[in-house]
Amino acid sequence: MHYRSVSEVDDSAARLAAIVASSDDAIVSKDLDGTIRTWNAAAERLFGYTAQEAIGRHITILIPQDRWGEEEYVISQVREGRGVEHYETIRRRKDGSLIDISLTVSPLRDSQGRVIGASKIARDISLQKRLQRVADEANRAKDEFLAMLSHELRTPLNTIVGYIAMLQRGKLDADQASKAFGVMSRNAQMLTQLVSDLLDTSQIVTGQMRLRFEPCDLATIARDALDGLRPATEAKQVALTSRMTSPAPYLGDPNRLLQVFWNLLVNAVKFTPPHGRIDLSVMKTPHGWRITVTDTGSGIDASALPRVFERFWQHQDGDFRTGSQTGLGLGLALSRHLVELHGGTISAASPGPGLGATFTIDLPSNPPSPSASVDR
Predict the structure, then answer these.
(1) CA dihedral defined by 235, 238, 243, 247, rounded to 10 degrees?
(2) Is residue 188 a contact partner of residue 181, using CB atoms and an 8 Å limit?
(3) Angle, nearest 10°, between helix axes 218-236 and 254-271?
């Protein structure tokens, strides 16, 4: 039998102490009544108590009151000579803040093998928990988006398929057939817009959105957008007015700028009730051009304003303004990206629900050079 010398024992103890002292994990020992006996530097960093403040106090200084039952369970395991491994829980720092930790507890024995206490190793898992919450939220958002996308695609498709079947079976007279073709055309346009928005979003996310800068006129672009919306506003009996500096020369991508004007106006029409009003303004400023779209619609709650330009984001009831509209929540997000690619800014303001909203675009006199903005 090999007996270790006193120097070997001392050297082993010193090495073990050095490991405990330099560990990145909090290592704490306590006796069976829960009194803290040792406390390493990592424990001080993690929990905020110095060794002098912690040693001699009960371990519950680290445990929220609603979790004291966990300590009873851990001690019962230790008394029976069993440990607890990778137990995820929450502990309280000296400043009162809570922290996610993974806890491993092992029995401490005396020279006769009797359990006299416990050694705890606590590891900060706050980052892992935050990343897990982000991942869970992303998965939830993905599932919600796919469900919403399926609904948005299925609705116009079902309409088109239904009318085609009726036409094939000769169920419609000439007048009904003419109306059916109109309905199918509108639903086909809706599908085209949905797919186009998805493709544009994909290009933005992957950095492949292309701008083609050329001399254009913002007033002409605005009028084209207004003309395209007039049938919808007339059907809804919404007044559509404009105020413009004309001509309004600008160097930009006219098709993308038309898309921005169109998105803002469509959004305004969607949320403005019959007999409401929508005002479009294109005015010169000392630093460039300001475009505003103001409506007398359902307005935007203050809590929703910071999120209206997020991709796919809509109010939990369906959308951020009335809870009754449909869509993928892409139009405003695309508008923001397109405006930013022109070096501009876009913002939303509203006095509150039921009080209308104003969307404002500021475009600089000197937008980014085409070479710098073609692939962004």
Answers:
(1) -10
(2) no
(3) 30
The whole-angstrom separation of Cα 292 and Cα 360 is: 4
Q: List the beta bridge partners of residue 123.
A: 102
How do residues 175-196 score in pLDDT, each as one tens digit? 888 888 888 887 787 777 677 7
DSSP string, 125-166: -HHHHHHHHHHHHHHHHHHHHHHHHHHHHHHHHHHHHHHHHH
Q: Residue 215 pairs with which residues in a beta bridge?
A: 251
Backbone angles phi, psi at 369, to 5 degrees: -65, 150
| Helix/strand/coil for 113 | coil
Element of type H or E holding 10:
helix 6-22
- Tell me the average pLDDT across 20-29: 78
* Three-class HEC string of 39-85: ECHHHHHHHCCCHHHHCCCEHHHHCCHHHHHHHHHHHHHHHCCCCEE
| Rounded average pLDDT over 259-283 | 91
Residue 45 to residues 40, 94, 102, 307, Cα–Cα distance (Å): 9, 11, 16, 37
User: What domains can you pick out in the chain, each with its CATH number?
Assistant: 6-124 (3.30.450.20), 137-205 (1.10.287.130), 214-373 (3.30.565.10)
Distance CA 120, CA 28 (A): 5
Dist. CA 163–CA 292, nearest whole Å: 40
Question: What single string gives the DSSP state of each residue in 217-240?
Answer: EHHHHHHHHHHHHHHHHHHHT-EE
283-295 pLDDT, tens digit per residue, is 999 999 999 999 9
Instruction: Say if residues 241 and 277 touch (Cβ distance below 8 Å).
Output: yes
Contact 299, 359 (CB under 8 A): no
Question: Got the DSSP string for 176-194?
Answer: HHHHHHHHHHHHHHHHHHH
- The pLDDT, as a whole number, for residue 328 is 59
**Closest to 322 in 3D by CA, of 348, 346, 357:** 357
